[in-house]
Automatic annotation (TrEMBL):
Residues 100-180 form the Large ribosomal subunit protein bL25 beta domain. NCBIfam families: bL25_bact_ctc (TIGR00731), PRK05618.2-2 (NF004132). One of its GO terms (cellular component) is ribosome. Belongs to the bacterial ribosomal protein bL25 family. CTC subfamily. InterPro entries: Rbsml_bL25/Gln-tRNA_synth_N, Ribosomal_bL25/Gln-tRNA_synth, Ribosomal_bL25_b-dom, Ribosomal_bL25_C, Ribosomal_bL25_long, Ribosomal_L25_dom, Ribosomal_uL5_bac-type. Keywords: Ribonucleoprotein, Ribosomal protein, RNA-binding, rRNA-binding. Residues 6-91 form the Large ribosomal subunit protein bL25 L25 domain. This is Large ribosomal subunit protein bL25. SUPFAM superfamilies: Ribosomal protein L25-like. This is one of the proteins that binds to the 5S RNA in the ribosome where it forms part of the central protuberance. The keyword Metal-binding does not apply. It comes from the Bacteria. It comes from Aquimarina hainanensis.
Length: 197
């Protein structure tokens, strides 16, 4: 999994006044949970651009001004309801020996037979919630849809891995090929041609 580095300043005062002053100075107040102590810090809003405004998932290396480095993942983010400026970010500290829970983006590989026959690929999930060690988690989870005909579904069990545990029920559908007009007849013709060949 990709990692980003954010250079940050540890916060001593965490009251409303101090937080407002930070935001006025273009800084984002942040918190890291999960370690021995809760760590409050701030960093310029632009430092989070590649972390927040992307479909990719990253681990984050937070380098504090006192020389401490903390590995973490983004847990929660709050935006201003009008301006969409980042108001606050929560991180969770990660450790080599402790599993973490993350939502990993899903993407398809292959070209579905049902789609070639005129069907439409519909997604139920764009991200899959998994639990595992940070070092074992992939940047993206891929699922092969080549054999999906019209009416077929791809389930979370089809993309299972020993590297992580999927936190959805086994019968959760990731995507499916839905029918469209003329699609069924075309697929039947394609099947007949394959039988003749």
């Amino acid at each position: 999994m990709k990692s980003l580095t954010i250079n940050a300043s540890q916060r001593e005062s965490v009251g409303k006044k101090a937080t407002k002053a930070l935001r006025n100075a273009g800084q984002v107040p942040c918190v890291i949970y999960g370690g021995d102590t809760i760590v409050h810090f701030s960093a310029p809003e632009i430092a989070f651009k590649n972390l927040v405004y992307t479909p990719d998932v990253h681990t984050v290396e937070i380098v504090l001004d006192n020389g401490t480095t903390i590995n973490a993942i983004l847990q929660d983010i709050q935006f201003h309801p009008v301006t969409d400026k980042i108001l606050h970010i929560d991180f969770v500290q990660i450790f080599d020996d402790k599993p973490i829970t993350m939502e990993i983006p899903f993407e398809t590989t292959g070209n579905s037979r049902g789609v070639r026959a005129g069907g439409v690929l519909r997604f139920n999930l764009r991200r899959i919630k998994v639990k595992g060690l940070a070092s074992k988690l992939p940047d993206v989870i891929q699922g092969d849809i080549t054999e999906l005909r019209i009416g077929n579904k791809l389930y979370v069990t089809d993309v299972a891995s020993e590297d992580y545990t999927i936190l959805h029920p086994d019968n959760t559908v990731i995507c499916q090929v839905k029918t469209s007009r003329n699609a069924v007849a075309e697929e039947e013709e394609e099947g007949a041609e394959e039988d003749a060949a």
